[in-house]
Automatic annotation (TrEMBL):
Protein species of origin: Azotobacter beijerinckii
Protein name, per record: Cholesterol oxidase
Family annotation (InterPro entries): Cholesterol_Oxidase (IPR052542), FAD/NAD-bd_sf (IPR036188), GMC_OxRdtase_N (IPR000172), GMC_OxRtase_C (IPR007867)
Lineage, broadest ranks: Bacteria, Pseudomonadati, Pseudomonadota, Gammaproteobacteria, Pseudomonadales
Keyword Lipid metabolism listed: yes
Transmembrane segments: none
Documented EC number(s): 1.1.3.6, 5.3.3.1
Glucose-methanol-choline oxidoreductase N-terminal domain ranges (all copies): 218-319
Protein's GO biological process: cholesterol metabolic process
Keywords from the named record: Cholesterol metabolism, FAD, Flavoprotein, Isomerase, Lipid metabolism, Oxidoreductase, Steroid metabolism, Sterol metabolism
Annotated family: Belongs to the GMC oxidoreductase family.
Cofactor: FAD
């Protein structure tokens, strides 16, 4: 046991360390934004948020072909495989596409993280999801209060139903009818979209007002552009709630285009020491991407790693295995990667109207043994999905030329008649109608499914020192085959010409695409089973390191089948409560 003199000296040394911040948060997705807000409320003016992407004010998301082509993430030092057009170009764009073994992942870079491009759905998974992989303190009953508070902050509610014809979403009715034909249950889903502050009396479409946290939003304009960044700020992204309050009310410092690089624990003298375990705080390093990748650093009493499943796992692996600053992290780091059963497919050119270019990107869910009559091996949910109008123009433009040849000839003939014979201009209007009346985009359908995969992917560092994923897709064929069978029934029911899984799923590629990467820093009761503690007093803390936390999708011990935003938010609220000692409320 240390003597009183030794304890007094250690306390004096600890107090002499001049910390720049009470907390540094790395990443601004759901976990990072929630913790920035909650910690800044506890320590106003003493919290730093590092976000690698840019801010996106209202109207700033790219839409032109040129701007979208340049909206991808590419850092030259990472030397990733990229198309030639961007391979040699430094780019800090919104979309970060990662290519791995048998799986590709799409993640976001920007202030608000994945909330900038997600599909808005707030859906709690059933209790059956929380099996023995989930510690008792992280199961449904324990998380219920945190689901409730995050749902209220994010403004989740179903799309409004009214007599206003502008609120009619045709594809919602189509999916509901298909569910009925299958003997399945379809329901409107809670979505984090702004329809005004009064849920009972939605604000008229396109009208702006301040939300309950003081940020200006627009009542949803039904443009189907949610997944590309909402230019009207109708999506309840994190920069309009948690982050808005953190910055404007609690004086959190937010640094964008700041890429977290290294976390080093300090000893009692404030020096970096790989044998230290965090009781004296940390030095956090980041690159200032706005200024030539200049390295910056700060001292903090505690650190919350919230860079997403891929980013958080990669950062901690680099600290453990390359920088050697956190050598004591569990060897479970990187295990239990899950794609959350994501599977995207298309039903093309059906005989029933779908109009997938209108409305919020998702409105309903059809349950296939996930929420009811649970069947772990085949459980998934089918959600309607939309795509923007400009993509519909592209779809029509790539149709085989012969299908439009007659209409084209008629259009040219009528245009010639207009000028040579003086025909009324109305005939030209009819001719353009003939040219554009093709319904390929209007009757094509996007099927978005999520399910219970086995969560047995493995993340590791490649030889260049960056994250790599091995995905055993064959182990999940039972789930994928069930989804494909449903898609073919949807094709037959609509009288469509073809059902197409995402093209890279076709032989010989057999690659999945996920937008819901999970796992790698799983919660557990011991470092032999996971990376982060599920004990109530240290919830989310990295085993062996005091004051070092993870708060994002990397915590999840398994797939949840449902859109994971609700569960990530609930877990992150729980992490923040453990750090601050403050029970969260929706008042922020």
């Amino acid at each position: 046991m240390d003597s009183p003199k030794t304890l007094s000296r250690d306390l004096k040394n600890k107090m002499s360390i001049k910390y720049d911040y009470e907390a540094v948060v790395i990443g601004s997705g759901f976990g990072g934004s929630i913790n920035t807000c909650r910690l800044a409320k506890r320590w106003p003016g003493a919290v730093l948020l590092l976000e690698r992407g840019r801010r996106y004010p209202m109207g700033s998301f790219p839409r032109s072909p040129h701007d979208i082509a340049n909206s991808f993430w590419n850092l030259l030092p990472e030397q990733r495989k990229r198309p030639k057009t961007i391979a040699a170009q430094e780019a800090h764009g919104l979309f970060d596409i990662r290519n791995f073994d048998h799986i590709d992942a799409v993640v976001s870079a920007g202030l608000g993280g994945g909330s900038l491009i997600y599909a808005n759905v707030f859906l709690e998974p059933p209790e059956e999801i929380f099996d023995d992989n989930w510690p008792a303190a992280a199961r449904k009953e324990a998380l219920q209060p945190y689901y409730a508070v995050s749902k209220e902050v994010l403004g989740a509610r179903p799309v409004p139903q009214s007599s206003d014809p502008r609120r009619k979403v045709i594809r919602t009715e189509l999916f509901q009818a298909f569910a009925q034909s299958e003997g399945r249950e379809s329901k409107l889903l809670d979505i984090n979209v702004f329809f005004g502050n009064d849920f009972e009396n939605p604000t008229a479409i396109g009208i702006q007002e301040k939300n309950r946290y003081g940020a200006v939003q627009t009542s949803c304009v039904y443009c189907a552009e949610c997944d590309l960044g909402c230019n009207t700020h109708s999506k309840n992204s994190l920069d309009l709630n948690y982050l808005h309050v953190a910055e404007h009310q609690y004086a959190a410092r937010i640094e964008t285009e700041a890429l977290g690089q290294k976390i080093a624990p300090l000893n009692e003298r404030g020096e970096e020491d790989p044998s230290a375990t965090g009781e004296h705080g940390y030095r956090v390093y980041w690159l200032d991407l706005k200024n030539g990748h200049v390295e910056c650093s700060a001292l903090s009493r505690r650190v919350v790693v919230s860079a997403g499943t891929l980013g958080s796992t990669e950062l901690l692996m680099r600290c453990r295995d390359l920088h050697k600053t956190l050598p004591g992290i569990s060897r479970q780091l990187g295990q239990h990667f899950s794609a959350n059963g994501d599977f995207l497919s298309f039903v093309i050119d059906g005989k029933k109207p779908a109009n997938p270019n209108y409305g919020p990107v998702i409105t309903q869910g059809t349950d296939y043994n996930l929420l009811k009559d649970f069947d772990r091996k085949h459980a998934f949910i089918l959600e309607d999905a939309s795509y923007p109008n400009f993509a519909a123009w592209y779809t029509e433009g790539i149709r085989p030329g012969l299908s439009h040849f007659h209409a084209f000839v008629r259009t040219v003939r009528l245009m010639a008649s207009r000028f040579l014979q003086g025909l009324g201009s109305g005939h030209i209007g009819y001719a353009f109608n003939e040219l554009l009346k093709g319904s390929l985009s209007y009757t094509s359908i996007v099927l978005l499914c999520m399910g219970i995969d086995k969560g047995n992917g493995v993340m590791s560092l490649c030889k260049e020192g960056f994250i790599h994923v091995k995905w055993p897709y064959r182990d999940n064929r039972g789930l994928y085959d069930a989804i494909e069978r449903m898609g073919k029934r949807f094709r037959d029911w609509t009288g469509a010409k073809v059902f197409v899984p995402l093209p890279n799923w076709l032989w010989p590629m057999k690659r999945n695409v996920t937008v819901h990467a999970l796992g790698g820093c799983r919660l557990a009761d011991s470092p032999q089973r996971g990376v982060t503690s599920a004990a109530p007093e240290t919830f989310g803390q990295v085993f062996g390191y005091q004051g070092l936390y993870v708060a994002d999708g990397a915590l999840l011990p398994s797939a949840v089948g449902a859109n994971p935003v609700a569960t990530i938010s609930a877990l992150s609220e729980r992490v923040a409560e453990g750090i601050t000692g403050i029970r969260p409320t929706a008042d922020l």
